Each structure stands twice: as structure tokens, then as C-alpha cells.
Amino acid sequence: MNAVPLSWYLTLSAVLFALGVAGFLFRRNIITVFMSIELMLNAVNLSFIAFSYQLKQVSGHILAFFVMVVAAAEAAVGLAIILTVFKNRATLNIDDINSMKN
Amino acid sequence: MEFIVISLIKAAVVLAVLLTTLAYLQWVERKVIAHIQVRPGPYRVGPHGLLQPLADVIKLITKEDLMPPHASKLLFVAAPFISVTTALISISVIPFGPAITVAGHRTWMQLTDLSMGVLFVLAVSSMGVYGIALAGWASNNKYALLGGLRSSAQMISYELPQSLAIASPLLLSNTLSLRELVESQSATGSVLSWNILHGPFPQIFSFVIFLISAFAETNRIPFDLPEAENELVAGFHTEYSSMKFASFFMAEYANMITVSAMAVLLFLGGWVAPWPAAYGSGLVPTLLFAAAGVIALSHGLRPARRRDRYSLPVFGIVFLAIAVLFLLPVVQGWLLPLFWFLAKTGALLFTFIWVRGTLPRFRYDQLMGFAWKFLFPIAVVNLLVTGLLVAWFS
Amino acid sequence: MDGILFLIFAVVAVLCGINVVVQTHPISSAISLIGVMGSLAVLYLLLGAEFLAVAQVIVYAGAVMVLFVFVIMLLNAGAEARKGRSFMVQLLGVPLLVALLGLLAYFVQRLFPQTVLVQFGKFTGGGAREVGRALFTTYLLPFEVTSVLILIAILGAIVLARKELE
Amino acid sequence: MLLWLIPAIPLLGFLINGIFGRRLPKNLVTAIAVGSVFLSLGWVLMKVLPGLAELRGAYTEHYFTWIASGNLQVGVNFTVDRLTAVWLLIVTGIGFLIHVYSIGYMAHEGGYYRFFAYMNLFMFFMLVLVLAGNYLLMFVGWEGVGLCSYLLIGFYFDKQFATNAGNKAFIVNRIGDFGFSLAVFLMFRQFGSLDFATVFGQASAAPEWALNTIGLLLLVGACGKSAQIPLYVWLPDAMAGPTPVSALIHAATMVTAGVYMTARSWPIYSHAPMAMETIAVVGIATAFLAATIGLLQNDIKKVFAYSTVSQLGYMFVGIGCGAFSAGVYHVMTHAFFKALLFLGSGSVIHALSGEQDLRNMGGLRRHIPVTFWTMMCAAVAIAGVPPFSGFFSKDAILLAAHQRAPWIYWVGIVTAGMTAFYVFRAMFLAFFGSYRGHHHPHESPAVMTVPLAILAVLSLGGGFIPIPELLESVFPRFVEVHDTALMAVSVTAGVVGIALAYLMYIARPASADALAGRFKGLYTLVYNKYFVDEVYDAVVVKPVVNGSRVVLWKGMDAGLIDGSVNGLGNRVRGVGSILRLIQSGNIRSYATWVLFGSVLVIVAMGIAGGAR
Question: Which of C42, C49, D136, D175 is the most exposed place for a label (fewest CB within 10 A)?
């Protein structure tokens, strides 16, 4: 049990990604949906780092790093949008938010 | 195998010392505050109230453990746990002194050294906010919720200037390992090679910024808005009692210790003496403890209270014994660095208490404005200047 | 040792991941997500990505998720209501999800034979020094562009947040 | 030589003034705007001018590759040869003087910073146009100056006529630009490159039809920008902009861009005789026609506007007759005296608080002497009185024309006489006789009169700048025969024009009206500019608008398309009501579709061999 195949990491990544997709599809709370996106991003990051290990290169880390940075920016803007939506419509249910206009 | 045993021993020693320190830090705080306010402070339990922490522990353990109705039970229980765990974890990477040899085994006075030590401490301390935020959330109490909200906003905000202030000395030392950080500051063995005074750009500004942010990160006065009693009853721990309440307290003191130790490692040269031993820095602890012993003895001769007739001479003799201990060449090698490290950390901890006894509390908008509009820009400029100068001179 | 660590944290990650999806209360989902991120950080360490592991904790768990928890607390978001329905999701959601997972797993198994093993310490190019060097030489332009992106995100967040004050 | 600095400094000025100008104090705006142009001028004087003597070929600086697509390689290259150098000096020099002048002229106008920002932007684009090392980059400058011209004509955008004039200029220029871009396409097809060096190197080997087509298409572009028949109609209307704009853009620099472009393309034209012929004919026709219209205009700026069109015609005659250097020579002298005439008329307008009608002026000689004397210098220069600048350049062109085709020469002579007549008519109406207006004229401040004085000196002495000799190494040799008799004829034409103007407007002021009464039909025709605008309106604009309305909108759109679509739509609606479920507005449904798509993509990749 000293080492595991790389494909296990990738499979884990796929599982987490699928869980993220499932969250996106089946959850109705907009914040949870947003968190599902973060989960998908994390899953992809794991793949990047696994690939980086396989290729013995640092570029996968850089990509994952950029994903993190973009996710942080996205969280800032996205949560601000959620706040505004909540202020305007008093709901967090994603099924109620189905038109661009008020 | 030997590694595991040594590590376990070290962990046990550190944990025991740390927990005792936590308890007694509160005693020190009460004493210092009392003396600032010209009161004697805890006095009745044991000589000079020295057994007061013990009594407090017994009281807290035996108190009724309340669970507010409609609270989120799991999170309510988990929150103090998270707080105290994240507070204690960072201690594991902090080096207290150089490598020593005990009974033929050479080891560092540090639980473990990470190549990312500084970032590790940052990461762990950034997790600490969950304890408070979740405590506020899970209590199902509006004061607690407000306290939790305030503290998460405050801690996120002050994390920025703190991180930036940490980054500047790292540029000088060019390492992220805490051990190498200290080694890089021991070049001349004097105060001039500490990062706070080291060229090309002395990190005085970032030291001050770090210290101010540290007050906010540990929710200490003047930044203790999350538990401002005249606005929020007791803030995030309004609903907590018994050992859960004590956990938050322990977390606060443990955080203080961590932050002070970090400041010492980053800016004040860790366990390095302020001037080389060749000029007699090794005699400082002896003289200090000897003076303390003599003072205690002389007070014991003319006691103000009856029981001091016995306690003060005992203290005096203990102090003198410690003074002699520092003269023994066998232990000097590890005792002196340890002394300097603890002395510096202790001085910073005293500053924490001192400030608490002196300054009033900020208003909340001022607090946030101060972080974003004043501290953050200054930290950025400081980092830029440091970076430029380091690049210029290297 | 590596294998055991991997299994422990993979299981933790998957369990927390499932919890993210099945919990109805957003704050429980958030806590579970932090769990996923924490275990992923450990897996990063196993893969030799020291810097990314710490960055994962600082950025994701320490900043992004705090923001999430903060917003959940601020909006006092309760458990979600079971109303609103999407025909599409009910009809196609599960089959598609299974198909996606199956395809991904199939291709991973097919493309990455079991011979490539992950051993801790085999790859040490993921320290702060190496990442920093790559970031500030080869990837300097993307890095600078990202900083602009963040600046814009800050501005956007401020503008959005300010609007609600009025 | 860091050529990029020359356009970059005004661009910086534009950015600062354009972004922050509203908040900056007026003095700072002025300092940035004028200072940037001054730095540009200084850079030209320091770096380009000293090396001019040694500069035989072209000096190129390559900055970066702008477009690399297939075999199309377009770099951002700046090139300097002697032709460019002359233009750089004109653009930055005159530009600087006019910027200085504008400080005084625009002092009391709203949108001060906006004006200077646009002016700086114009300087940037004009310098890019001149410095460009390939046709595409030149086109960038070309379009840019068009944009700035549009912005500045419509500077008083709260006035209907100004915005209309701006639109007119923009739309008419589009026609020209269309020709230019077709020429560029054809050039790329023919030569596989857009670099001047490559194109000109292969020009002699190309088939003549291609060169003729390219030349004619370029001429269309030049006609638009340089206001030649049939696209000249925008320039007189462009006088709606502030006067410094008329002087800088619509007299001295931008409108001569067409001349620059054709002169720059001489290797193409020298192998395209048909295109050359066309240029000459278009030029002389424009010169003559515009001069006749100029005879009867009452708006002082309109007179000079038509004069500009006419003089531009002269330049094209020079180019068309193969005397490229003479054309360029005339560009320079024209820049001096026409900028001066415009700035002077601006000073007059300024003095009369906005009055532009010549009939409401008169006797201003005593009120605004500096303006009068400086404008007089320009007038004698444009009239071709020796030894002032206009004489030399005009004469060079006319001599070349005589060599090519004598009829062009004679038409040119008549035009020269008319030129002298209308310029002095304007001068006499404005400055002599008795004052007929109501305002109290006052002399302009020194910041306006000093540029006037400098330009006056240049107008008088500019003929002694040896442009033809300087450009000898650039253009093919054109042997000019110095014919004293021909020279005398042209001088006589000028003097006769002046004398006639004196006779009709000073000696016997009533005679002009009498003459107009006698030739009433002709008078009305010319006074209304040959009804060209009306004809264009009837022949081009109305049909296009009506055609769009009747055929495209009512017929095609409403009838055919809408009809068929509505019919189809009714069918589709049934289907759509099912498909509409996709567009539910429900994010989770959309997400399901995305998931569906990604599964398909993965399957497709697997089938396509992604799985090895």
C-alpha cells in the first residue's frame, strides 16, 4: 500500500466533478448551486495537479493556481450578485429567478 | 522509530507547557490589569493568587453545560472545538530554539519544520474564523449572530494587511521555513541582523502593521468588537458556558501566543540574543533572575501581609536557583536561546495585556475603515518599497 | 502509508462531496465543502504540490468559503424550499449524470494505465520557489492579466454592493 | 530614432485630457495639449531634421507584428524618408501653431478640454498616417483622421447644422474609404504584401490593368479625403467646426492626406498612365469648378473652403502631370497660406463675436491691423504674386501641366486669376470700405496673433524652402522647362484678378451687383454651387432612402420576408410551443442541456479516437 495509481486520483476527480454537477442540477438554493460550481473547480484542480505529477512539470500547478484566483474573483462578484438578487426579490430559490427583468 | 518517540515526547512537553501557560497567562493578565488599575488582583487562592487558574478550571468544568433551544447542535458543539484546534495547531511548526543534543539524541526544539512554515501558520489561522462564525450562527441568537458576522468580516479584512506585513520580512530572509527564517536573522548575532532593523529596508512598519492586525485577528481590545459586551451582550459566545466557553478563551490566548511567537520569529530574530555572547548577553538571564530573587527576598523581610512572610522568600530562593541554573555550562546551550525566545514572546504578550488595560474600543465602521483605508495601503507600499530595495541591492 | 492516506482523504472528500449535494441547509453544504477542500489539500501534498496545498487552504478554505459562510449568515438563508420543478432535470438529470461519470471513469481507466504510481516525494517541483519562478517568468503575462481580473472583480463587487445601499 | 514617440506623445495628451480633462484646471489642459504637440515637433526637429541631408532612401523601424494570418503579414512599422519628413514638419509645425492659436480662440468656448483632446487625437492619427510603413497602417491613420474630423466638425453638437455637416463628411468619406480599402485588397492580391517597399518593388512588373485599377481606386479614396470631384461636397459644410479645426484639418493637413497617399504611391502611378490622366483631369476640373463657386460666396470661411478645394485640385494636377514634387511643394506652401487665411478669418470672426458674413464686415483694417496685415501676406501668396510662396509652387505645377497638356495649363491660368479675384474680394469686403456690422471689433490676443505672424513670414518666404530639390531623390526626375513667357502669363492672371477685385469692390462698389443682375441665370447657378448638393440629394440620397423604404422595407422586409416568415412562423409556433420548454428560464434545465452537450462531446471524442 505504498503507492496508488495516478488513475485513482483522476477517478476521484471525476467523482467529485460529477457530484458538483449533481449539486448544480438538483439543488435549488442559489448559494448551494454556487458552491457546487466551486466543487467542480476543485475537482478539475485535482486533475491538473495529478497531470502535473505525471508530467513532472509545474505548469499544472500554475493552471490550478489561476483557477483558484479566478474562483476567488468569481466568488466575490457572484456573492455580490446573490446579495443584490436577494435584496430585489427576497428569494434564494433558483427556480424563482427565471427572468432578467424584475 | 526513534523519530516517532522523540516527536511524541516533544509533543507531550509542548502540550503540557502550553496548556499551563494558557491557564497562567490569564492569571498574568488579571494581575497586570489589576496593577494598571491599582488593585491587587487575584490574591486569595494560593500565594498571590497563584492557584487561581486551577480554581477557575475546576469551576468551569463543574458548571452546567447549557444547550440553547433550536440551536444547530452539531455545529454548536463543533465551533469551540474548531476554534481551539486551529489555535493550537500552529504551535507545531514554531521553533523555540536551535538543535540540541539530549542523551545522545540530536533534535530541534520544534515539533516539525515545514518548508512552508509561514504559509502553514497563515493557512491554519485563516481557518480560525470558522470557529467564531459558526458559534455565532449555531447559537440561534441574534447577538451571537451579529458577533459572528462582525468577527468574520473583521478577521478577513485584517488578514490582508497581516499577510502583506508578513511578506516583507520574507523578502529579506528569502525563505518560508520558520527555522531558516531565524537562521537568516542570526548572521551577526546581534539586534542589527533582525528583520526589524535589517537592511536594506528595516521592517519597522510591517512589524507595527503586523502587531495591529494581530490585535484584530485575536479579537483583543481595542478590536474586540465581536464580543463587545455593551452592544452584543457577549458576542459570539453569548450562549456558551462551561468548558465550551473555556475553549473559546483558551483559543484566544493560544492565538495570542502564536501571533506573538510569529512576530518574534519574523521580526525579532527568534531565539537569537540581542547582542553576541562575547559581550555578555549570556549573563542577562542570571542577572535578571538574581535581581528578582533579591527583590523578593528583601520584600519577604518586610512583608505587607502575613502570608508573604513565607511565600516571598520561597520565590526569592527559586529565582536565585534559576539564576544559578543559567550559569551551568551544561544547560546553557539550550536554556539561553529558550530564554531569549520566551522573553521576547513574553514581552509581546505583555504588550497585548498592556494595550487592553489602556485603550478603549473602536467603533465598528472605524475599525473596518482603518483596515481598508489606512493599514492595507500602507502595507502595500511597504511591501513594494521592500521588494524594490531588495531587488536593487541583491 | 501513501495509499492509506490517499484512501482516507479520498473517502473523506467523497463523503463531504456527497454531503454538499444532499444537505438541504446551505451552511451544512458549506462546511462539507470546506471538508472537501481540506482533504484535497492533503491529496495535493501527496502529489508534491506543497504550495498549492497551502494556497488551497488559504484561498479556498480560508477566504472564499468564509465569504460563503458570511453571506449565508448575512442573508440568514434557511433550508431550501421544495418548490419549483424542472421537467428536464427530473427526466434527464440522473441518466446524464450517470453517463458522464461512467464515461469519465471509463476514459480515465482506459487512458491512464495502472502503471503510473504516485509516490510521495517523487516529484518536488511544487514548492513555493518553483511555482513562483514559473509564475513570474513563463507565465508572467497571464499572472498580470489575472491581477487585472481581480481588480475588476473587486470593483464589480463594490459597485454591486453599493447599489443596494441606496 | 524612436519614431513611435512622435505620434505617441499627442496620444498621451489625448488620453490624459480625454479621461481626466473635465476635472483638470484649464491651464493644465492647455499645457498638456500644446505641450505634447510641441514635444512632438521638438522630436521631429531634433531627430528627423538633422539627418535629412543624409537620408536618401527610407529609414524603417519595426515595432511588432500586428497581423500574421496566412501569408498576410502586417507589421507596425514606421518609415521615414524625405517625403515623410516634409510632411512631419508640416503636420507638427502647423499643428503646433494652430494649437497655440486655439488657446486664444477657444478660451471662452465650452468643452475646452474636449476640443484639445480631439485635436491631440487628430495629431496622433495624422502622424501615424504619415509615418506608416504599409498601406494598412496608413489606413488606420486615414480612418482615424476621418473620425477626428467628424468629431471636430460636430464639435458644437448642440447645433443641428454642425452634426449634419459632421455626418455628411463622415458618409462622403466612407465612399472614398471604400475605394481605398478595395485598392488595399487588390494590392494584397497582386503583390502579396502591403509594405511600401515590397509593393513598390514589384510595381514595375505588375500588369498595367491592375496598376490602373489600384491607382483609380486609390484616387477614389484620395477624392474622398481631399475633397475632389465628385466627393468634394463635404468640405465646405465642414466649416461648421471651430475655425482652428478648419485651418488644421480642413486646410493644412488632413485634406492633403490624399495628395500624400497618391504621391507616396508614385511607383504605382508611374506605370499607370490612365490613372495619372484621370488624376490630372479630376484635379483641374475641381480646381476650376471650386474657384467659380468661391467667386460668389458671402461667408468668409466658405470662400476659403472652396479655395481649399480648388487649391487641392492644383495639387492633384501636379501629381497627375507627374510633377510629384511640385504637388508636394504646393501642399507645403498651401499649408502656410491657407492655414493663415483660416486663422486670420478666425481672428476676424473672433473680433466680430461670431459674425461670418462678408456683407456685414468692412473697414476692419483700422480695427484689427495685425490680422489684416498677416492675412494680406497670405492673400498675395495665394494670388501667385512673385516672389511669395504661392507663386513658386503654383508655377511649378502649371509649368508641368503645360508640358503635359497645354489645355490644362490654360484652365489653370484662368483658375489662378479667379483665385486672386475671390481672395482679394474677400479681403476688400472685409477690411476696406466702411464698417457695415453692429459689433465692436477688437484685436485678438497675442496668443492668436503670434502664430499668425509666424505663418505670415512662412507664407511670404516659404517659396525659398527648396522642396523640389529636397525631394529629388524620392521621386522620378521630372525635367522642367523654365519658360519665362508662361511664368509671366500666370503672374499676369493673378494681377488681373486682383485688379478686377479692386475695381469691383473698391473703386466702383455697385458694379458687382450690376454684373450679377446682368447674368442672373449664371449667377444663380454659381451662387447655389451648381446645385450639386441638390443634385446629389435627388440622384443619390433620395433614391437610396426611398429605395430602402419601398423596396427593402415595404417590399422585401414587410412583404416577402415577413409574409413568408409569418406563414412559416404559424407553422413553427406549433412546433415551438414544444421546443419552448427548452427556453424555460430555468437555470437547472439549461444546466441539464449543458451536461447533455458535454456527454455528447465526450462520446464524440471517444469515437473520434481520443481513446487511442
Answer: D175
A94 interfacial to chain D (CB closer than 8 Å): yes
Selection from D264, D260, D385 nearest residue D315 by Cα? D260
D511-563 per-position pLDDT tens digit: 777 777 777 777 777 777 777 777 777 777 777 777 777 776 666 666 677 77
Q: What is the DSSP letter of D550?
A: I
In a domain, C72, yes or no: yes
CB D293, CB D526: distance < 8 Å: yes
- Residue extents of the structural domains in chain D: 1-271, 276-527, 528-580, 586-612
Q: Which residues pair with B99 in a beta bridge?
A: B108
Domain extent for A33: 28-96
Residue C90 falls within a domain, yes or no? no
Q: Do the Cβ atoms of B116 and C67 come within 8 Å? A: no
Domains in chain B, number: 1
Domain range for B255: 63-272+328-393
A76 is a domain residue: yes
Of B122, B124, B152, the CB nearest to C69: B152
**B135: pLDDT strictly greater than 70:** yes
Residue ranges of alpha helices (H) inside chain B are: 2-36, 52-62, 73-89, 117-138, 142-173, 178-184, 204-217, 229-232, 242-267, 284-301, 308-325, 329-358, 364-369, 376-393
Domain membership of residue A73 (yes or no) is: yes
C39-94: per-residue pLDDT in tens? Answer: 999 888 888 888 888 888 888 888 888 888 888 888 876 766 666 566 666 777 78
The model's pTM is 0.60
Asked if the structure places residue C101 within a domain, the reply is no
By C-alpha distance, the chain B residue nearest C61 is: B127
SS3 assignment, position A58: coil
Centroid of chain to Cα D210: 27
Give the pLDDT confidence of D407-417 residue by residue, as tens digits. 888 999 999 99
Establish if B305 belongs to a structural domain.
no
> In which residue are the cell numbers 466649416 written?
D239
A102 touches chain D (CB under 8 A): no
Specify the DSSP element, H or E, that contains D61: strand D59-69
C85 lies in some domain? no
CATH of the domain at C32: 1.20.120.1200
Residue D433: CA atoms inside 13 Å, Cβ hemisphere, count?
23
Same domain, C159 and C113: no
Chains that touch A (3 or more CB pairs under 8 A): C, D
Q: How many domains does chain C have?
A: 2
Closest residue in A to D595 (Cα) is A21
> In whole angstroms, what is the distance from residue D365 CA to residue D430 CA?
8
List the single best residue of C2, C15, C19, C29 to mutate versus A (max A Cβ within 10 A). C29
Same domain, C39 and C117: yes
CA–CA dist B171, B390 (Å, integer): 7
In D50-68, which positions are buried (b, 16+ CB within 10 angstroms) versus exposed (e)?
eeeeebeebbbeeeeeeee
Q: Is C135's CB within 8 Å of A32's CB? A: no
CB contact, 8 Å: C105 with chain D?
A: no
Characterize the bridge pairing of strands D72-80 and B105-109.
Answer: unpaired
Range of the structural domain that residue C76 is part of: 1-80+106-124
pLDDT in tens, D106-135: 888 888 889 999 999 999 999 999 999 889
How many Cβ contacts (< 8 angstroms) between chains C and D? Answer: 46
Contacts of B178 (CB under 8 A, 6+ apart): B93, B94, B95, B110, B113, B114, B117, B118, B121, B265, B270
Domain count along chain A = 1
Which one of A7, A21, A44 would you mutate to disrupt binding with D, by most D Cβ within 10 Å of its Cβ?
A21
- Give the residues across from D80 on adjacent strands: D59
- Chain D residue with CA closest to A27: the answer is D588
Q: Is the peptide bond before D230 cis (omega within 30 degrees of 0)?
A: yes
With an 8 Å Cβ cutoff, is A4 touching chain D?
Answer: no
The verdict on C72 and C138 lying in the same domain is no
